[in-house]
From TrEMBL:
Species, as recorded: Periweissella ghanensis
Keyword Chloroplast included in the entry's annotation: no
The protein's name in its UniProt record: Arginine--tRNA ligase
Name of the gene: argS
UniProt short sequence motif 'HIGH' region, positions renumbered to this chain: 122-132
Pfam families noted in UniProt: Arg_tRNA_synt_N, DALR_1, tRNA-synt_1d
Annotated catalysed reactions: tRNA(Arg) + L-arginine + ATP = L-arginyl-tRNA(Arg) + AMP + diphosphate
Keyword Iron-sulfur: no
EC top class named in words: ligase
Length: 563
């Protein structure tokens, strides 16, 4: 049983006239230091009702409470402090983990309701940036965390495959491009055209008009424009798929912006019917003044639709298609206003489910304190990062464990895992300066450190012959094991908190924490010594391995058994 619940149940027998079990559970705190106990209950809020000083209330509760199942219960000033029966609690936790295996910490909160996650969503004809990497790995981790909490996530890659930039690209291609050049190295070549277009357009603004005109042709179904578009899209997507492959991240849908072309009238008609569409300098807009937001542009002067129009159509499509509980958008914080506008327009149109749309923003990755941008050429190519990380992992393994079987595979799991973990261990909104050496550092607070802790646990289990311990005697009296046991017991609550906060970093930080506690325990105890607690110690090692492996899996990182 959950430790908080055990404490709340005990308290409820004394306080049943004042508070419910759930109320009590909400008030239970963790004492600052473990010498004050494992859980504490403050009595201040009872003073008025009971007309007694909190100190007195705490003392009275201790006198009355049934202490069975606890090491002791004491009053410390206004607090009732509970010391859990470590042997019993520890044995229960180990038994539960060994029984449940990877399913430990699963819950059914989500009742299988659908949650579409708009994630990754890179732009065709541009390289996948570090920002898109963040969206990809955060979205993927949230999807795994949703499943663990009983939801059904739908991973949607809302590809940026439509918009005026395609018009510009077509103009550039027709002026300076060659088919062979694009085929040889699609994205780099297309980016080159794009950068050149922007440079030349500075001196020659007429190019921008041509770009807009070509995009209009595309929207109107012009055959040449359509062919070029499809070709650019296919070539780009191939490169993206290659990266997703390396990250081992899959999608349920690649319906990008273009998918909504034939679903745009519905949006425009709805807004028209509700009398929300107004003309402004030839363009069609929705006024959002009452939300304190800038106007949302729905159609350009030339009738072309916008990013916003396509997002409105996508939101409505997803509601219809998935009848979602929540609809997530894992998109950088710089688009916060866009999503506020999106929700506001839907709300104005009378769609109550607009409130279930959730923008899940994340911070910027900078280089030397500066923003990345395709136009300026200040970009980090994800492929380079992954390649370098795997190379570094390879060197480390050759150094430490040259005879390891499947070296290549493990190096890949460690290198790619390092990149993913580094991204996820930061709270989403924290911006960070990107520094490759930092990402692939294999000591300190890194993914490889967690992987290594797990590999060491597995190596002990191998030495012991991988015993089946579910039915063994699992009581541990060794006080040094307590920190690790307690953390193991907190995993189910951690899984819930990660979803509640939409924060994969909660899981990453937990995994680091557990690794540290376990390594400390491991350094100070002789696990394989033959005595009557050997099974319990091995069970602890096995439980650590199960929970570390599962934590890494939630983040989208492999846990090699040897490295
Ligand atoms: N393609 C966009 C970009 O790279 C992100 C799209 C996010 N998703 C959305 N539904 N707007 O900035």
């Amino acid at each position: 049983m959950d430790n908080k619940l055990q404490v709340a149940n005990a308290l409820a027998t004394v306080l049943k006239d004042q508070l419910s079990v759930a109320d009590i559970q909400n008030k239970i705190e963790m004492p600052k230091t473990s010498d004050l106990g494992d859980l504490a209950f403050p009595t201040f809020m009872l003073a008025k009702a009971l007309r007694k000083a909190p100190q007195q209330i705490a003392a009275d509760i201790v006198a009355e409470i049934d202490q069975t199942g606890f090491e002791k219960v004491v009053a410390t000033g206004p607090y009732v402090n509970f010391f859990l029966d470590k042997k019993l609690v520890g044995a229960n936790i180990l038994h539960e983990i060994l029984t449940d295996g990877a399913a430990y910490g699963n819950n059914t909160d989500g009742e299988m309701r659908n949650v579409p996650i708009d994630m990754s969503s890179p732009n065709i004809a541009k390289p996948m940036s570090m920002g898109h990497l963040r969206s990809t790995v955060i979205g993927n981790a949230l999807a795994n965390i949703l499943v663990k909490n009983g939801y059904n996530p739908v991973k949607i890659n809302h590809l940026g495959d439509w918009g005026t930039q395609f018009g510009k690209l077509m103009v550039a291609y027709k002026m300076w491009g060659s088919e062979a050049e694009v085929k040889a190295d699609p994205i780099n070549t297309l980016v080159g055209y794009y950068v050149r277009f922007h440079e030349e357009a500075k001196a020659n603004p007429e190019l921008d008009d041509q770009g807009r005109a070509w995009f209009k042709k595309l929207e109107d179904g012009d055959v040449e424009a359509q062919q070029l578009w499809k070709w650019f899209r296919d070539e780009s997507l191939q490169e993206f798929l290659n990266i997703y492959d390396q990250l081992e991240i899959t999608f349920d849908s690649f319906n990008g912006e273009a998918f909504y072309n034939d679903k745009m009238d519905e949006v425009v008609n709805l807004l028209e019917d509700k009398g929300l569409l107004v003309e402004s300098q030839g363009a069609q807009i929705v006024d959002l003044e009452k939300y304190n937001l800038p106007v949302a542009m729905i159609k350009r002067t030339d009738g072309a639709t916008l990013y916003m129009t396509r997002d409105l159509a996508a939101a409505m499509y997803r509601k219809r298609e998935y009848d979602f509980d929540k609809s997530f958008y894992v998109v950088g914080g710089e688009q916060r206003e866009h999503f506020q506008q999106l929700k506001a327009v839907l709300k104005e149109a009378g769609l109550a489910w607009a409130d279930d749309i959730e923008h899940i923003p994340f911070g910027l990755i900078t280089v030397d304190g500066k923003k990345l941008s395709t136009r300026s050429g200040r970009i980090i190519l994800l492929q380079d990062v992954l390649d370098d990380a795997v190379k570094l992992a390879n060197e480390q393994i050759n150094d430490k464990n040259p005879d390891l079987a499947n070296k290549e595979q493990v190096a890949k799991e460690v290198g790619v895992g390092a990149v993913i973990f580094h991204d996820l261990q930061n709270e989403r909104m924290n911006s960070f300066d990107f520094n490759l050496a930092e990402v692939v550092r294999f000591e300190g607070d890194t993914g490889p450190y967690v992987q290594y802790s797990n590999a060491r646990a597995n190596s002990i289990l191998r030495k012991a012959g991988n015993p089946d311990l579910v039915n063994a005697e699992l009581s541990l009296t060794d006080a040094a094991a307590w920190d690790t046991l307690k953390l193991l017991g907190e995993f189910p609550a951690t899984v819930r908190r990660a979803l509640n906060d939409r924060e994969p970093s909660v899981i990453a930080k937990y995994a680091l924490h557990l690794s540290r506690a376990y390594n400390k325990y491991y350094a100070n105890s002789k696990i394989l010594v033959e005595d009557n607690e050997k099974d319990a110690r091995l069970a602890l090692v096995q439980a650590v391995s199960i929970v570390l492996t599962e934590s890494l899996r939630l983040l989208g990182v492999h846990a090699p058994k040897e490295m």
